[in-house]
Amino acid sequence: MAEKDSNSVFLAVAVDAAKKAGEIIRKGFYEVKHVEHKGQVDLVTETDQACEDLIFNHLKQHFPNHKFIGEETTAACGVTELTDEPTWIVDPLDGTTNFVHRFPFVCVSIGLTIEKVPTVGVVYNPIMDELFTGILGKGAFLNGNPIKVSSQSELIKSLLGTEVGTKRDKLTVDATTKIINTLLFKVRSLRMSGSCALNLCGIACGRLDLFFETGFGGPWDVAAGAVIVKEAGGLLFDPSGEEFDISAQRIAASNPLLKDAFTKALRQSE
Q: What would you report as the CA-atom Rg of the chain, rounded to the nearest whole angstrom?
């Protein structure tokens, strides 16, 4: 089977898995949740685990020889190393706090890396019924329609997305708020949607012009969105301006016109 045909098959199976998990999320969205704490403000529900189990079972039926990394499995069993093997990297419910509070920015994120390169991405928000997809070299789509990053070229007219993360120690909070306080004077406004994957999709479809986040959970937050941003014509990079590393828990994204000004602003805010 040709590589491009394989990638199309990978995408179709991932979309099926995301939609099946989305049904579980949609069903549980307005119900009373059983909530546990992974940290002071980092939450997990029975829906997270049910969705991860469903997704992995679905993928393993089709691709038994592939590797798998999931947020909840990693939380329970420790860090899983990313290798060159085809590896599915899954966040079964990105935006768990939003899910608990019935704030409709929640999604399933399913990414496939091959030789550590994000190659297939699916991000599905079942509450808003928005399906973002991307295949390396084949473009990015929202509900089947092609999407592109914004054409904004001025930082001061840009909409910035970020998150404050789940750590609440004074050092982390002070560092985060210092960066935000500085950037607020250089952009039009700021949004925190509560989902790293959906923020990346916001960049991909032009809703957001700029995005950065540090200290997020792991590669499952960015593996799918990374493909979608790149295929929509966007750039991914470390907030320092260096190359993006899927394992580094640091990410920034923008359209090509804003990257230099954005990285300069980020460096000045640290």
A: 17
Residue with token string 């590589």: 3
Are 78 and 85 in contact, with CB atoms under 8 Å apart?
no
Give bridge partners of residue 125 from the DSSP assignment: 130
Q: What is the pLDDT of residues 77-119, one digit of tens each?
A: 666 789 999 999 999 999 999 999 999 999 999 999 999 999 9
Choose among 49, 47, 60, 67: nearest CA to 14: 60
pLDDT tens track for 184-200: 999 999 999 999 999 99
Exposed / middle / buried, residue 169 (Cβ in 10 Å: 0-12, 13-18, 19+): exposed
CB neighbours of residue 233 within 10 Å: 18
Distance CA 222, CA 144 (A): 21
Structure tokens at 87: 């590896």
Structure-block tokens of residue 171: 């050092």
What angle do helix axes 223-231 and 196-204 make, rounded to 10 degrees? 10
Q: pLDDT tens, 9-45?
A: 999 999 999 999 999 999 999 988 888 887 665 678 8
**Contact (CB, 8 A) for 37 and 109:** no
Token pair recorded at residue 100: 């608990």
Q: Residue 106: which of 30, 167, 173 has the closest Cα?
A: 30
CA dihedral 158, 251, 118, 153 (to 10 degrees): 20
Which of 116, 118, 107, 124 lies closest to 223, judged by CA? 118
